[in-house]
From TrEMBL:
<dbReference type="GO" id="GO:0005965">
    <property type="term" value="C:protein farnesyltransferase complex"/>
</dbReference>
<keyword id="KW-0677">Repeat</keyword>
<comment type="function">
    <text>Catalyzes the transfer of a farnesyl moiety from farnesyl diphosphate to a cysteine at the fourth position from the C-terminus of several proteins. The beta subunit is responsible for peptide-binding.</text>
</comment>
<dbReference type="GO" id="GO:0008270">
    <property type="term" value="F:zinc ion binding"/>
</dbReference>
<protein>
    <recommendedName>
        <fullName>Protein farnesyltransferase subunit beta</fullName>
        <ecNumber>2.5.1.58</ecNumber>
    </recommendedName>
</protein>
<dbReference type="InterPro" id="IPR045089">
    <property type="entry name" value="PGGT1B-like"/>
</dbReference>
<dbReference type="GO" id="GO:0004660">
    <property type="term" value="F:protein farnesyltransferase activity"/>
</dbReference>
<keyword id="KW-0479">Metal-binding</keyword>
<dbReference type="GO" id="GO:0097354">
    <property type="term" value="P:prenylation"/>
</dbReference>
<feature type="region of interest" description="Disordered">
    <location>
        <begin position="1"/>
        <end position="87"/>
    </location>
</feature>
<dbReference type="InterPro" id="IPR008930">
    <property type="entry name" value="Terpenoid_cyclase/PrenylTrfase"/>
</dbReference>
<dbReference type="InterPro" id="IPR001330">
    <property type="entry name" value="Prenyltrans"/>
</dbReference>
<keyword id="KW-0862">Zinc</keyword>
<comment type="subunit">
    <text>Heterodimer of an alpha and a beta subunit.</text>
</comment>
<feature type="compositionally biased region" description="Low complexity">
    <location>
        <begin position="44"/>
        <end position="64"/>
    </location>
</feature>
<comment type="similarity">
    <text>Belongs to the protein prenyltransferase subunit beta family.</text>
</comment>
<feature type="domain" description="Prenyltransferase alpha-alpha toroid">
    <location>
        <begin position="127"/>
        <end position="473"/>
    </location>
</feature>
Length: 517
């Protein structure tokens, strides 16, 4: 049944077919008038489509040349309007892809693309809040039959949409009954949640399900999880090297480590290993967290980044999973320096942010992608906390290492390049939006807008995870921002990727309702 919000009939979700010609998007008259008034900033005319409905090669070339040659809008630093001064002379497929991406992004970064609307004094487009909200409401409705391939990702689709809506200021609790009805059949009697009805339990799907339940909140949502069965299932996933497999008999990687640590912390599960945790007990472990930090340490690569498992390529998402897991296990100023080579890690993470794009790539020699606004961008608050040292009893630290990356660059990439004019956020210009990118691009934007720090005060009465529940946030100073106040998003917990209060509510309810072991 279509959803009715604020008296409006919400349309069903629609996804553009690859075979259809791109829609012509008209710039509002007010925006055109504003653009014409600004000296030296002529808006390019849209390219005329060829027979196929797509611009011809010459038209695409003209558009790229126009983006390079035409003057950018006022207020945009040269760093974000010019190609890098040092270019790789070796021409490879990777270099050609990077050059093409750079040309496409420059048109948006300079404020010259016809789909962009009004701009502020810094030359940054406004956050299109209402279209993004509509897009996310649509994503909670019916999907085309081609999306059957996503059937194993149902908990994720719920979480991505609810998290995005929450960031934009919407109330996710109105979906409580629908979320309970969706997730209840996915819970396996032997513990954990599957990706769909009747599917085996998976740590990634269980993580998304627990976060979705935390977002909608309430005793019914918290009580839906069979915490004893979850605890026993996690014991069976615990491996002899300290890590976790993502499903029984499945692969082991740092995703499993982070998802398990999040579930254990939010649900206040016992740390003692269940009796049937054979692999872990045979290795001499006594708790679910024994050997976990050491496993993560072995995943740091020679580059300095962090890989999914020891000995493979470093990846931005695995870096976040590892640093967040370490920060759940203990104070980041203790756990991160003890188990990671911070200078090498800083070097690798810094190399993930590109100029002039301003966004992050996920791996060495790869293109920028909006989702890494969270996966890489989310690493910086954790590292900053580790370098700032022990927290104060209350309030933000008086001295800090400060910004370790270009917040302005990421803000410009997200607001200029990642917004789809029809609603939703995307990987980069030329890509279609989806709820995954919408969620994590917005999460990254929220992280740039807030200073995350720890205090000595925790909402948890447990000493094991007191540090994980001691995080607070405050808005960044307006003088440092290139976005307008109206574009500010809700602050999310830097470890659990839900609002601070949602994490606190689930943890406190579980503490007050301990499970028998």
């Amino acid at each position: 049944m279509p959803l009715i919000i604020a008296g409006r009939h919400k349309r069903r979700v629609r996804f553009p077919a690859a075979s259809l010609p791109p829609a012509v998007i008209s710039t509002p008259a007010t925006a055109q008038q504003q653009q014409q008034k600004r000296p030296g900033n002529q808006v390019p005319s849209p390219a005329k489509p060829g027979k196929s409905g797509k611009p011809s090669k010459s038209e695409s070339s003209n558009s790229s040349t126009m983006a390079t040659q035409q003057e950018p809008r006022p207020g945009i630093p040269a760093l974000f309007t010019q190609p890098p001064p040092i270019r790789d002379p070796l021409v490879t497929e990777t270099v050609e892809l990077q050059d093409a991406t750079l040309e496409r992004c420059l048109e948006f970064l300079k404020g010259l693309h016809i789909s962009q609307g009004s701009f502020n004094a810094s030359g940054v487009p406004a956050l299109q809040r209402d279209p993004h909200i509509t897009y996310l409401y649509d994503s909670l409705e019916d999907y085309p039959e081609g999306f059957v391939a996503m059937d194993a990702s149902r908990p994720w689709m719920v979480y991505w949409a609810l998290a995005g809506l929450t960031l934009l200021g919407e109330d996710p609790t109105r979906f409580r009954e629908r979320v309970l009805g969706t997730l209840r059949p996915m819970q396996h009697p032997t513990g954990g949640f599957g990706g769909g009805h009747g599917q085996i339990s998976h740590l990634a799907g269980s993580y998304a399900a627990v976060l979705a339940l935390a977002l909608v909140g309430g005793e019914d949502a918290f009580a839906l999880v069979d915490r004893e069965a979850m605890w026993r299932w996690l014991g069976r996933l615990k491996q002899a090297d300290g890590g976790f497999s993502v499903t029984e008999g499945g692969e082991e990687d740092v995703r499993g480590a982070y998802c398990a640590a999040t579930i254990i912390a939010l649900l206040d599960l016992p740390l003692t290993l269940p009796h049937d945790a054979k692999k872990a007990r045979e290795a001499g472990f006594e708790t679910l967290t024994d050997g976990l930090a050491e496993y993560l340490s072995r995943c740091q690569s020679f580059e300095g980044g962090i890989s999914g498992s020891p000995g493979v390529e470093a990846h931005g998402a695995y870096a976040f999973c590892s640093l967040a897991c370490l920060s759940i296990l203990g104070p980041p100023e203790e756990t991160i320096p003890r188990h990671m080579n911070i200078p090498l890690l800083l070097s690798w993470l810094s190399a993930r942010q590109y100029a002039p794009e301003g966004g992050f790539s996920g791996r060495t020699n790869k293109l920028v992608d909006g989702c890494y606004s969270h996966w890489v961008g989310g690493c910086w608050p954790l590292l900053q906390s580790a370098l700032d040292g022990k927290p104060l009893s209350s309030g933000a630290p008086t001295t800090t290492v400060g910004n370790l990356y270009s917040r302005e660059g990421l803000d410009r990439y997200i607001l200029s390049c990642c917004q789809s004019p029809r609603g939703g956020l995307r990987d980069k210009p030329g890509k279609s939006p989806d709820s995954y990118h919408t969620c994590y691009v917005l999460t990254g934007l929220s992280a740039t807008q807030h200073h995350h720090y720890r205090t000595n005060t925790s909402i948890s009465s447990s000493s094991e995870f007191a540090s994980a529940f001691s995080w607070q946030s405050s808005p960044m100073r307006a003088v440092d921002n290139v976005y307008d106040k109206a574009d500010r998003l809700v602050a999310f917990h830097p470890l659990f990727v839900i609002p601070h209060q949602a994490a606190a509510n689930m943890r406190l309810w579980c503490e007050s309702n301990p499970i028998a072991t």
